[in-house]
Amino acid sequence: MKTTKALAQLSALKKHAKKLRLAADSWDCDWKTLIATLMSARTTDKKTIPTAEQLYKKYSTLKKLSKAKTSDIAKIIRPVNFYKTKAKHVSELSKLLILTYQGKVPHKFEELTELPGVGRKTANVFLAEKGQAKIGVDTHVTYISKYLDWTKHTQQQKIEYDLEKLFPKKYWDKINWILVRFGQTYTSRKEKNRILDNIKRIKH
Asked: Quick one: average pLDDT of 177-198?
């Protein structure tokens, strides 16, 4: 696969995608961005965003959230998948940010992935939202990247490395947003694949 063809395909994906708000978008504090991204794992952004809004309405500061009972957090975030585990992570994460980082979210990958519930994808999506050259690989990125032959791998980290080799660095922070928005625009697998087949045929 040539980079010029992959860039043309990425541009086509962007044109076919609606400008949907994603879980990491438009929060006024880093901790809100990180926790909403954490909560979005295996859950649609359409469900995650209003749930996160309810959580932040109840606990308007990180300090207030750090003092909340895990059971109270769980009641609020019940609409997201694996809410009990995520409630535990949110509780632990908020406490750790207060105690270790003076209430500020670190902007280093190694430090982020040491936080409760923050895996490689969550860290990369957060850092990309903050302007760093990172690629968050989730189910949408995995599916589309394999479909368009950008990668042959299924392992998250290997897909990430393949995309880094294929795309110039200035595009890295845009890849997740474009592919996730495309994936969420077309809920029908048949319709999604029809468009992807057309995009796959692009020659450049």
From this structure: 94
